[in-house]
Amino acid sequence: MTPARPAGADPRRAPTTEPGATAEPGEVLDCRGQRCPLPVIALARRLPDLPVGAVLRVLADDPAAAVDIPAWCRMRGQEFVTAVEGPGYDVRRIH
């Protein structure tokens, strides 16, 4: 029996790592000094340029980013990996 996959998921573009696995960010998006929703908009524009499985660190010092970035990941089906000091947020591109 083949495991189910999300509608529209292309198995040829599967993530290079398992969801939940930790990884160092390949790129950093510096949104410090910007107020939400600008960091989320920048994330939405930058993430599609990265390969599936890549981790992007978003640096954002607006307190709303702590809620907005994980919420955006849930709504868009991307993986919120972790919040890091700096303040930063690691997001893995899933699709």
From TrEMBL:
SUPFAM superfamilies: SirA-like. CDD domains: SirA_YedF_YeeD (cd00291). Coiled coil: none annotated. InterPro entries: TusA-like, TusA-like_sf. Residues 1-28 are annotated as: Disordered. Residues 29-53 form the UPF0033 domain. Gene3D superfamilies: TusA-like domain. PANTHER family: SULFUR CARRIER PROTEIN TUSA, SULFUR CARRIER PROTEIN YEDF-RELATED. Belongs to the sulfur carrier protein TusA family. This is tRNA 2-thiouridine synthesizing protein A. It comes from Micromonospora inyonensis.
